[in-house]
Design a protein that fits this description.
This protein is mainly α. The chain has one domain: Up-down Bundle (Na+/H+ antiporter like fold). Helix content is 80%, strand content 0%. It has 19 helices and no strands. It starts with a helix and ends with a helix.
Length: 415
C-alpha cells in the first residue's frame, strides 16, 4: 500500500505542476515544470523550518523516493526507447558521422577537460577535490540529457541538421558517459595504484558493444513478434516487455542499458510492423510511446525538483556550482571545437555552429541520478551540489535563451 501511496502522490503532484504551467506560467514543458518544482521544494523547506510537522508531511515523497535507482534502473530504459523509437532515422543516418563523434570522442574529451580544469582551478579557489574524483564528476556531467534536450529543441528554431545532430548525440552519449562513469568509479574503489588497464578496457568494451548487441537482438525479436499479430493491445504489451527485458538482462550481465534501449528503439522504430497498407499499428504505437515519453518526462522533472528537499547543504556551494557551470560550458565548447579542426570536411558542421551546439548541450536527470549514486565520501556533497547547479542552469537558463543563441549564430552565417 505504501508503494501505491507514493506513486499516487507523485502522479498527483506532477499533474498539479503540469496544470499550473499549462494554465498560468506557460513556459516550455520541461523548463516550466522544473521551475515550478524548484519553487515548490523551496516552499517545502521553508514550511519545514516554520512548522516541522507540516514540513515532514510535505517531504514524504522526496524522502521515500530512491531517485538514482528509479531513474537508472527503470525510467531510463523507457525514456531512451521512446525517444529513439520516435526519432527520424533517415535524418539520423545522414548525420551519423557528427553524431558518433559528439557522442563518443567529445564526451571523453569533455570529461577529461572538465576534470582537469575543475581540479586545478578548484585548488586555486580552495575547492580541493582529487583529480580522479574530478574526472568522475566530468564523466557524469559531460553527457547531454536526451529527455531535456528533446523537450527543449522541440520548442526551438534549430535548423534541421543541427536539431538532428543534437538529438542523436543525446541518445547515444548517455551510454558512453555511463560506462565511463562506472569505469572510473571502479578504479576509485580498487585504488588508483591497483587499476588493471586491460580489465578496465574489457569492462568498457563489454558495456558498450554488449549493450548495443543486446538491443539489436531483442529489437529483432520484439519486432518479429509485433509484426506477426494485429491485436494492438498485445503489440503494446510486447513493446513494454521489450524495454523491461532490456533492463533486466542488461543489469544481470552488466551491459549498457542506455545503449541497448536506444539500439532496440531505433531498430523497431525504423522497421514498420504494419502487416498491410490498411493496417496502422506502427503509427498507433508511435503515438503510444510519445504519450509515455511525455508522461515520464513530467514525472522525472518533478522528481528532480523534489530531490532538492534532500539537499539542505545546497546553498553552501554557490562558488563550486558557479565554477562548474562555467567549466562545463568551456569543456563542451572545446570538445566540439577540437574534433572539428581535423574532421571539418567530413562533418556537416561549421565553426559558427559550435556556439549553438555548446548552448544546446543540456544536462538533466541522468547526471543527477549518477551523482546521487556516488558512494559516501568527503567529495560526494561537492559533486552532487555542483551537479544540481549545472542541471538547473542548463535547463532553465540555456533552455530559455537557446533561440536567441540560434538567431545570433544563424545571423553570423549570413553573408
Amino acid at each position: 500500500m505504501q508503494l501505491f501511496v507514493l506513486i499516487a502522490l507523485l502522479v498527483i503532484v506532477s499533474a498539479i505542476y503540469s496544470y499550473i504551467n499549462a494554465r498560468f506560467v506557460k513556459l516550455p514543458g520541461t523548463i516550466g515544470i522544473i521551475t515550478i518544482a524548484i519553487i515548490g521544494s523551496v516552499l517545502t523547506v521553508i514550511a519545514d523550518k516554520l512548522d516541522p510537522d507540516v514540513g515532514k508531511r510535505l517531504m514524504v515523497i522526496a524522502k521515500d523516493i530512491n531517485f538514482s535507482s528509479l531513474v537508472l534502473n527503470i525510467l531510463l530504459g523507457f525514456l531512451l526507447f521512446a525517444g529513439s523509437f520516435n526519432a527520424n532515422t533517415k535524418r539520423l543516418k545522414k548525420e551519423m558521422r557528427p553524431v558518433v563523434i559528439l557522442s563518443t570522442l567529445s564526451v571523453l574529451l569533455s570529461a577529461g577537460i572538465f576534470g582537469a580544469l575543475f581540479h586545478f582551478i578548484g585548488e586555486w579557489l580552495h575547492i580541493r577535490v582529487p583529480l580522479i574524483y574530478c574526472f568522475l564528476f566530468g564523466a557524469l556531467i559531460s553527457p547531454t540529457d536526451p529527455v531535456s534536450v528533446g523537450n527543449i529543441i522541440k520548442n526551438s528554431k534549430l535548423p534541421v541538421i543541427l536539431s538532428t545532430i543534437i538529438a542523436g548525440e543525446s541518445l547515444f552519449n548517455d551510454g558512453v558517459g555511463l560506462v565511463l562513469f562506472i569505469t572510473i568509479l571502479e578504479a576509485i574503489r580498487s585504488g588508483t595504484d591497483n587499476v588493471d588497464l586491460a580489465k578496465t578496457a574489457l569492462l568498457f568494451l563489454r558495456e558498450v558493444f554488449g549493450g548495443i548487441a543486446l538491443g539489436v537482438i531483442l529489437g529483432i525479436i520484439g519486432h518479429w513478434l509485433m509484426k506477426t499479430i494485429t491485436d494492438f493491445q498485445t503489440i503494446v504489451l510486447v513493446s513494454l516487455s521489450l524495454v523491461m527485458s532490456i533492463s533486466l538482462i542488461g543489469a544481470y550481465f552488466e551491459l549498457s542499458i542506455p545503449l541497448a534501449a536506444v539500439s532496440a528503439g531505433l531498430f523497431v522504430g525504423d522497421n514498420t510492423i504494419n502487416i498491410d497498407d490498411k493496417e496502422r499499428s506502427h503509427e498507433a504505437l508511435e503515438k503510444f510511446w510519445q504519450l509515455v515519453d511525455e508522461m515520464l518526462n513530467t514525472i522525472l522533472f518533478v522528481m528532480i525538483g523534489l530531490q532538492m528537499v534532500n539537499l539542505p547543504y545546497l546553498t553552501n556551494y554557490w562558488l563550486t556550482g558557479t565554477l562548474s557551470i562555467v567549466l562545463i560550458l568551456v569543456a563542451r565548447w572545446l570538445s566540439i571545437f577540437l574534433p572539428l579542426i581535423f574532421l571539418r570536411r567530413s562533418l556537416n558542421v561549421n565553426y559558427s555552429n559550435i556556439h549553438i551546439l555548446t548552448w544546446a548541450g543540456v544536462r538533466g536527470g541522468i547526471s543527477i541520478a549518477l551523482a546521487l549514486s556516488l558512494p559516501a565520501s568527503h567529495y560526494r556533497h561537492i559533486i552532487l551540489s555542483a551537479c544540481y547547479f549545472v542541471v538547473i542552469f542548463s535547463i532553465v537558463v540555456q533552455g530559455l535563451s537557446l533561440n536567441r543563441v540560434i538567431r545570433a549564430g544563424l545571423k553570423h552565417d549570413q553573408p
